[in-house]
Each structure stands twice: as structure tokens, then as C-alpha cells.
């Protein structure tokens, strides 16, 4: 780049200098232009008139479902056999400077939503939303424990129910921009969300033998957020508050012969106050954020012998900070760095407890120990443009975690990474990446609180020494204007080189391929495929040495097509097919000749649809969806398969589901 002679001034520069020193300090941004003497009406864009009135479409869907298993709700959106109906809409209104829109999808079904927004751009906006979410985790759960008013009552009659959760979410929000009133870059927002969750989930207890049962769920969660944003020509700041409150409407559970055998999830609340900002100086950008929070849990505890506490005065204070800076040194080189610090300070009450030692009962008193966690993360990166279309990136990441009274008091992670982006080859995009990381730290089992509680050679995988290597590549190729190929692959290896008992090695690798072709103007086809493999090795205990090999495999395949040129462009046909498969096997050597049971599942999903335009405003769509689902988990057993174990029965799935839906839509404009 040729340097500029500071003494070589042209006439325009001289004119600016002669106009006075105030001109040098002025902001010549377009937002400060003086337009008071301009006849703006003469310069209005005659073709930039935004449409006024209503636009969009509304519709209703009616149909029928035939499903052998309520697990089909996860794919079909509803599990009600027989007739179903829902409302859809995407309507917008604009007039006299006001805007509003309403979006709805399958409103009235088990999974549907509606969102409404209204306001005046640049001044204020009001929004309202409602959503229903239903997920099924297990159908036809069999239980002989009947739950009523906190009592689990055994019965000879078997009760069949679904492990299904229903959520009803609603929210309201408001935004206001003070710029038009105060002439400042000041805006504010506030939002409130409420969720009610009901249904059943699986749970277990021991009294004195293992008991699995369907635990009723009746919970509420309230969230509130508010903030103010102040910005200038080259800076931005925000002060915000976020709070949540969780309430459990069900209490502890008892058996007829034993009170309070299962403790309910306690009520709790959390609060956060955050201050963030960003400043731009020439070719550099600086940003920061400070967040302070408090989590509170003060709930009555289940009373038992030796417990001196009536209720738990739990409090955890949190502090999070983030600092970041990026700068462009020239048109080739950019540098960046960031620092994060987080602290979790457990300020819960400390009490004396009678402790039971392994050998033997000593009767000594010890205190519960609040555990704190401190994290520090430092990241640096550089991006250099080697030549036109070639960019090299590299970086270094460092993370240090300190834990009080844990198996390992400190861990340190170091990571080096690099990426190469190639855009110089016509119609081809290439990205390559490589990284290496190493985790070490203080001596394992360094604390006397944990040194006697587990095998000295055992290592928890998230605390153990680890060396990780990873490579990845991605390519996007467009040989023709109507044809696109995308492919990516990766390989990662985790080596737990200091672990004698526990996870010793893990490999994770896979690929994804996508193809899209606009064969003709009305015909478009697509296809994709992806696979992932995770192979893990684990070593057993010292007394009877054994090794386990865990092999997990996942596959996703899909293809589809749409054709929109039939019957004078009135009819559009489409088809989509998806296949998903997962398989997990665990082989054990040296301990038993029998391997652990496998987990296997697959899913076939086919969707066919046709849409016909009755008129430019009205359309009729007929859609058919089919799902074939099967899974088998060896951990799911019948109630009488293991002596002394009470289960929820065989929760595996094997079903066919069909959905036929007719949708009528009307375009408003």
C-alpha cells in the first residue's frame, strides 16, 4: 500500500483547514446531515410505497390420525386418534404508520402456537404469544402404585398411563424507543413468560427394594426480563435484569408403611443483573459484560433421624465477566482476544451432621461443605488473508477451573487450533480445520473429603487428564446454476492417558452430504445422508480386571421432490422421506462372557402432499404422513423379570402411525 505524504494537500483539504478547527472535530456521518433547507417531498421515492392494509393468509386444517402408540405425537404433532383440527395464519397489517401481524400453526392441536405483534416502527412494539408442547417419553407404562394426595398406594389393579409431559407457555412483551421523544438513542424492553407443565415422568426409589413408578408432574415457571439500551454513533450499552421462579405444586411422597420416601423437587428462584457495552474506535471494537446473580432455594426438608435442619437455606451467588477486543491492523491481518471469568460462590448454611464412616461408625460430627467453582477462559485468535480467496486463521484457548472440595481441585485446558478457508476456486468453497488440546491440573484425589470415598485409580472423565486431536473439512460445489453439492467430515480422538479405571479412549467421526437440484423450473429435488460413529474404551476395577468397548452408530437419510407445473400451474405435488437409525452395543472382556444388552431404534417417515389453487386467493392442500417406529432397550424389562424389582413394564415401541390432513387457506391480498 502506497503511503500518503502528509504535506501533499489538495485544494479540498486546504479549504477544510481554512474553515476553522471546529470542522476537524465534526462528525460527518450521514445521520448528522442538515436537511432543514431541503424540500424532501421532491425527493420521495415514487416506487417505494409500502403496501397498506391486510396481507398474508389464513387457513384451517382438519384430518384424522390412526396411531398404535402415543409416542407418535413426537413426529405427527398430535396423538389423538380420530378427528383433529387446527388453525393456521400468517397475517400482516400496515396502515397510518402502524404494523401488526399474527402467526399461528396448528393452533388447537397438542403442538401448536400463536404469536401476535403490533406497534409503530421506531416508537413501540407490543407482542403476545401462546404455545402448547407435548412430548411422549414412554407409552403404556404399567404401575401398581396409585398416587393420590402424596400417598403411593400399592394396588392389585394395574394402571396403564403414558409418560407424557404437556407444556402450556404464554408470554407478553413490550418495547419502547425514546428516540422520537427525547432525541436520544434510548430504548427499553420488558417481557414476562409463564409455563405450566403437567403429566407423568418416570421416577425411582428404594424402600427397601428398588421401585420404579410414574411420578405425577404439576409445575409452574415464571420468567421476567427487562432492560434499557443506550447507544451513540460508535458505542452501545445495555442494563438488564432477568429473573425466574419455579414452583412445584406437588409435595413429598409417602408409602403406607413409610412416610416421606420420595422428596419433591423444591421451589427455587434465580435473579441476574447484567451490564454490557460495546465501543468502536477506528478499526477496533471493544466489548464487555458483567453479570451478577443469585440463586435461592429455601424449602422444608424431609425429616429423618440425625438431621438437624428443618429447612434448607440455600443460596448461591454468581459472577460472570466477559471482555473482548478485535482489531484490523491492515487489510490482511485481524487480531482478536477475549477473557471470561465466572465464579460460583455457595453461601448456603453450614450445619453439623453425625457422619457414618466406612469403617466403622465413629459418631464424629462433620459439617456439610459448600462447594465453589471458579472458571477463567482466555482466547486469542488471528486471521490473515494470504492472497485473494485464501484466508488462514489460528488461535489459542486456555481454560482454568478451580473446584473446592472436589476429587480434583484444579484443571487446566490448553488448545491450539487453525483453519484454512479457500474461496479462490471457481464454484468451489473449501474449509479445513485442525485442533489439539491437552487437559491437566492438580493431583487427583488431592482432598481428604474425597480421597477415601472412591477407588484411588478411578478417574471421572470430565476431570481426568486428556489429550484431544480433531480434524475437519467442508466443501460446497456448484458446478451448474441449478445443482449444488455440500459435504463435510470430521474425526476426533480423546486419549485419557492417565486413567487406569474409567474411560481410557474415545473416537468420534462422521460425515454429512447434501445435494440440491432445480432440475427444471417446476421440478426441484434434494437428498442428504449423514453418519456418525462413537467408539469408546473403558477399563474396569482392580479386583477383576475387565475392559468394555462401546460402539454407537447413527445414520440419517432423506430425499424429496416438489413439482409445481401441473394443471396450468395450479397444482403442486411434493414428497419427503426420512430414515433414521441408531445402534448402541457394549462388549465386555475379562469379566463376563455375556455382553451388555444393546439399544437399537429406527424410524421411517414418509410425507406426501398436493396443493391446488382454487383461485389466486384460495388454496386446498391434502397431506398424508406415515411413520414406522421401532426401538428396543435391554434396560426396559417386564414387571416380573427380576425378583424384587418393581418396574414400569416394557416401554419399548413398535408401531405404525398414519395422519391425513386437509388444509384450506385464503390469501388476503
TrEMBL record:
Signal peptide from the UniProt entry: 1-25
Pfam family, one: MtrB_PioB
Keywords in alphabetical order: Signal
Top-level taxonomic group: Bacteria
Protein name in the entry: Membrane protein
Organism, scientific name: Shewanella algidipiscicola
